[in-house]
């Protein structure tokens, strides 16, 4: 998965739009709302008391997005994070719902300002992060790598833009 400097710039500027318009809370509630309604099978991983992780999730997003510039240096940490997820029995194919829901939330909150390239960059970045995390799995779970139709994901139906 190639991530060009232009992809990285695009992901950062999309995320900066969320931050600068103070849409983080909307992003988070949209993310969880879409994740749980579209992929009810992953809901059991997030007990109610874990959903209050909002600020942690935001912190993680900030770190991940800013870390794209030095992703190689983060490899070991991301692999450890992968093992942590493996220990929660989260399989590789469960990363798709999370990535798709993050793109959905992005579309919802800054839809009009996103280009096709921005959407593709977002997917590529989160696929890259997920793949590194999954490469840290010890193999206790069935082997399955992330693969999905990126262009169709980038074409995800866009909804109303509450920011407008
Ligand atoms: C894009 C890939 C992902 C990233 C970057 C990510 C990042 C993180 C981070 C940084 C934490 C906090 C770790 C800690 O407390 O030390 C976390 C916790 C958690 N993640 Fe993920 N995650 C990803 C994918 C997933 C997926 C696919 C699922 C489930 C479908 C998931 C479910 C959880 C849950 C339930 C926790 C809370 C664990 C706890 O507090 O006990 N994550 N994640």
Note down, in words, how this protein is organized.
The longest helix is centred in the C-terminal third of the chain and has 20 residues, at 116-135. It is built from 8 helices and no strands. It has helices spanning 5-20, 24-38, 48-51, 54-67, 75-87, 95-110, 116-135, 150-154. Helix 5 packs across helix 7. The protein starts with a helix and ends in a 10-residue tail after the last helix. 63% of the residues lie in helices and 0% in strands. The protein is mainly α and 164 residues long. Residues 156-164 have low confidence and may be disordered. It is globular. It has one domain: Globin-like (Orthogonal Bundle), CATH 1.10.490.10. Bound molecules: protoporphyrin IX containing FE.
- CATH C-level category: Mainly Alpha
Distance between the termini: 34 Å
Task: Please report which band the strand proportion falls in: under 5%, 5-15%, 15-25%, 25-35%, 35-45% or over 45%.
Answer: under 5%
Topology, number of strands: 0
The figure for the number of domains is: 1
What is the makeup of the main sheet? none
- Strand and helix order: HHHHHHHH
The poorly predicted ranges are 156-164
């Amino acid at each position: 998965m190639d991530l060009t400097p232009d992809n990285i710039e695009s992901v950062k500027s999309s995320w900066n739009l969320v931050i600068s318009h103070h849409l983080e809370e909307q992003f988070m509630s949209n993310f969880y709302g879409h994740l749980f309604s579209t992929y009810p099978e992953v809901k059991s991983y997030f007990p109610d008391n874990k959903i209050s992780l909002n600020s942690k999730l935001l912190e993680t997003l900030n770190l991940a997005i800013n870390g794209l510039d030095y992703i190689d240096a983060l490899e070991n940490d991301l692999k450890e994070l992968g093992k942590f997820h493996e220990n929660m029995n989260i399989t590789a194919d469960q990363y798709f719902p999370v990535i798709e829901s993050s793109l959905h939330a992005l579309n919802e909150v800054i839809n009009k300002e996103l280009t096709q390239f921005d959407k593709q960059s977002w997917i590529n970045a989160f696929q890259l992060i997920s793949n590194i995390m999954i490469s840290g799995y010890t193999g206790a779970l069935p082997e399955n790598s992330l693969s999905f139709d990126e262009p169709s994901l980038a074409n995800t139906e866009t909804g109303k833009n509450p920011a407008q």
